[in-house]
Every structure is written in structure tokens, then in C-alpha cells.
Amino acid sequence: MNEYDYDLFVVGAGSGGVRAARVASELGAAVAIGEIDRMGGTCVNVGCIPKKLFVYGSHFAYDLNDARGYGWSTQPSFDWATLKENKDREIARLNGIYESLLTRAGVDVMRGRVRLLDSHTVEIGDLQRSAKRILIATGGKAIVPDIPGRHHASTSNAVFSLEELPKRMMIVGAGYIALELGSMLCALGVEVTLIHRGEEILRGFDHDLRCHLHAELEAKGMRIVLETQVTEIRKTDSAFEARLDSGVLLETDFPLFAIGREPNVEGLGLQELGVELGQRGGVVVDDDYSSSVPSIHAVGDVIDHIQLTPVAVAEGMHFAHHFYGRGEHRIDYASIPTAVFCQPELATVGLTEREAWHRCQDVRVYKSVFTPLKLALSERKEHTIVKLVVDASNDRVLGCHMAGHGAAEIIQGLAVAIKAGATKAQFDATVGIHPTAAEEFVTLR
Length: 445
Fold this sequence. Notes:
3 domains, 30% helix
């Protein structure tokens, strides 16, 4: 007779939780998963997927204009409701696919809010279930600062359910979400003002790329205000008014905060069970994603490590293989590629120039800024930047950075070269595909 109802109970059916549950079940474990919201978590419902669909939709604003230079006569019109309805239909389809993946793998899917009663027991709705191990995969939630009028502010979640586009939007923040949504809305005709407390956008990215993207975004009509904070939001008769610490009053139809996300641990009962949490509330785990309570584990954004969907998926895989397989799946956190799907797109893998100088005695930098051939016959004045950072002592390429059309697709391929330890000489010896923007990486001098 089994001591527990399940070998594993997963809390949260997002990217990491679904992968862990499915793989563990396929490896022979008895698994259940609890979810209060739609299947797929942030990524599928209010993150990567709908964001990218909106970005695709907004990019036609530029593509249709470019087409005139190539002989096409266009009389474009745009309907937000159509884009939103089609997006909603696609997300609903993906929700069904995620649930089907779980049930076909033999995972019991349970709906409701989950709370841990002890280190082996969960409560979900009116039910209680026991498990040998419990995996927390509840992701993160958007942060809104504690300022007067904070209840007037929205988060990125609200953008995906807008019935109509606002005329003027204020976005506070300058990271992935702020720039992606800001540039998307700007392309669709919204007057976007971006407020950021730092000295430049995209903290943590390569300095040349940050400055390049800043200039390109402003050229597309986005207003960027740096070294400034919002101290208060007030409702007016017709809109909202944000008070900045500079004393300026900014009128906006839609105040949105995209200043980061924090681990979603509220109401789970973790602290009461002695689970150690970090300064920002993330579950503290070891290399195998075990918490300070041996039967409680965590993966994904809730551990507040690297907040990227593929990382959560890899962590879920590692967990499942470690405890229910042969433990052969390992994660290498070095040189993880990432992209910001703003316009123009930015992608990067490896070390920034500043990071390289902190780790190496001598660094060589190769950089090129150019107008892509696609825009040669259009009126769009957009530039692409590509950059390589190289360790001068051994010629190894430490970082590849790009802002421009197709950056994410190009950098994904170069991530393999970085992972394999490629040298600048090997880049140089590679024949480029002409004419492409990608060939710049193998012709830099």
C-alpha cells in the first residue's frame, strides 16, 4: 500500500511545472498537477506567446510602408479587435494542447488554489492530497510600487485584454516587457512615453546595444525619459495624471508598470513549513532544486534565478530526470541566449564587453553598424548593429550581440558556436551567406 496518494504533486501548470509533471509521469511516477488559472502559465497566456503575436501584428505597420519602395500599392487599415480575437483563439488552442499533453502522459489535472498543509500534503479547493514530493512552479507576478494611486496603474497582463487601444500610454520600466510592449504599441499608433529610473534602458545588456536601441526606439516615435521616477498617480476627469520626481505632471490614458516581477509565493504556506525564502521571496534551492525542506522543491521564476521560459523548462526536465530517471539531464547556465522582441529586435549570448574586461586581461571588440539591404528601397531609416567580444589571450569568442531584424534567429545559431567554444579565427574561416545580416558576424575586421 502506498504511503502517499502521489509520488509528485506539482503546484502550477506553467512551462516548468508542465514539463516536470509530464516527464516524471512518463518516467513512471504517479503525478498530479494543480492550477488555479489557464494552462501554460505566464508564457502562454500573458507573456511570450501573445506578446510575440502582437509584435508580429504591429510589425506590418513598417512592412506595409516598406512595400511601397518595392512597387506595391498599399492602402492598409488596422483593426485591434481582430488581432485580439485571433490571439485569444490561438491561446485557447494552446491551453487545450497543454492540458492534453498532461492527461496523455497520465498526469491528474486538478483545478483550484493550492496551499501546502504540511511537507507532504496539499489542499486544493475542498480536497486534500498527499505526495512524497511537492514541486513549486508558480512562476512570478508583476511588481507595482507602493505609491499613492498605485491602484490606478496596470501591469503588462492588462495589455493582452484591452478592448481598444489607448491614445497615450505611460510605461514605467525599461526591461524586456516595457520595451516589447512599448515598441509594439508605438508601431500601432499609440503615443508611448517610457519612464525609467536608470541612466539607460536594458540594464545588464551590452552598453553599445543599449545606446543603439535607445536611439532606434526614439526614431520610431517613442519618448524615453531617463533617471526619473513616478511618485503618484491621480485620476482626472478624462484620463490619469502621473507626478514625476522632477515635478513634471504627465497626462496619460493608460499608466502601466513593467518594472520587474517577483516570485509568486503568496498564500502557499511555505514560510509556515520552514521553507527558506530569499530576499525577494524566491524559494532557495540547491543544485537539484530541493528546498530547505527535503520533500519540497521548486523550479522556474519562483526561485528568482533566471526568468526565462526555456530555463524553467530545462529546470523541470532536470528535476524529473534527477528524481525519477537516471539523473543524466544537467543544466549549463553559462551563455544562455536571450532576446528582446522590440522593434528593432535585440538578441545576445555570452558576455558583454564590460563583463569580458572584468574576467579577461585583454579583450578585442569587433563591431559594425549598417543599414540592412531590406530597407535599401524603403524610406525607413533603421540601422542594425552586430558586435563580437573576444578574449585576446586565446581568440575565443565570449559574446555575440545584435540589434536589428532577425536578431533572435541569428543569435540562436551563434549560441551553439559560443557553447562549443568557437574562436574568432573559426568565425573568420566560416563562409557567409550573401547578402544577409548574419554574414556580418563572419566578416568582422
